[in-house]
Amino acid sequence: MSKLGLALGGGGARGLAHIGVLKILDKEKIKIASITGCSMGAIVGGLYAYLKNASDVEDFILEAIKNPKFANLEIDAFSRNKINPNKNYFDQIINYIGERINAIKVSGHVSYFAEEISNEIYELIPDIPIESLGVKFSAIATDLISGKEINFTHGSLRKAVKASSAIPGIFPPVEFNDSLLVDGSSSESVPVGRVKEIGADRVLAIDVSRCLKSISPPKHIIDILYRTEDITSHHLSTIILKEADLVIQPKVKQLSWADFNKVNEIIKAGEIEATENLDKIKKLIQRNVYLLGMEQYFKKLKGDTEKEIIN
After folding, report:
1. Distance, CA of 200 to CA of 36 (rounded, Å)
2. Does the pLDDT value for residue 284 go beyond 50?
3. The pTM is what?
4. What region, left, alpha or beta, does residue 169 occupy, with left being phi > 0 and alpha being psi -120 to 50 degrees?
5. Bigger pLDDT: 242 or 150?
6. Least confident of 131-140, 194-203, 287-296
7. Environment class of residue 290 by beta-carbon count within 10 Å: exposed (0-12), middle (13-18) or buried (19+)?
8. Are 44 and 20 in contact (CB under 8 A)?
9. 3-state SS, one letter per residue, for 27-57
10. Half-sphere exposure of 154 toward its Cβ, with a 13 Å CA cutoff?
11. pLDDT at residue 91, rounded to an integer
């Protein structure tokens, strides 16, 4: 029997499209063996592994967005500014915070939101062992100390999700053993390889990252730093996604990471994309695992050959 694994990528509000994809998989009675999530993908994936029903996840998220604790964060302000949509969230944050960045530096804070506020928000996530969930689940985070990627496969679901979605500079890093953890997107925006580590033999990746559009020439050093970061992330994601057996990309790439006011539109985009790719998903489930393995081997071989030619 095939073991379908989902790799749910990060993207802030865009990641709510994962709910739409999961709703279609539920409707078609497609069994999911394992899920690995990053950032919002970890939140949605963790809730699905806990609730075992996409519609319940949708209800949970809608209630959470309406919760005063979330509303008081005023995250939608990052979206309302309507800053250049091609800028990443770090750039949007600096535009929004403005002079307050200097105050944060002076006070020695490591994030815009305090630890107390962060704890209040994540109290909404069930604090139960990952190993007790109905679907195998893991969440990735990035260690600021070592630079390594951490894959939570056991322990507190709340802590794993909190670490995986700790947007650098916005939410405080999460202390874990000797590590200081932030958003998993810092190391792998769509955690394809990690899904097979927890039992999947075929991987459906859901990518909700932003488009890499052409822009006008950078005007100063900050523009250059942000642009190079965007380019690096884009090409890294392209390489990682080649490891997936199937990649679908809901039409949300034009939206901001902070567009939580468009939650219904985003979820619908996930439903539409999953429906349009339903035949491919069903064929993936039916594919022989050995043939899939050979295809992945030749993909990797082709990639290595291309690197040698470039070098």
Report:
1. 10
2. yes
3. 0.82
4. left
5. 150
6. 287-296
7. exposed
8. no
9. HCCCCCCEEEEECHHHHHHHHHHHHCCHHHH
10. 1
11. 56
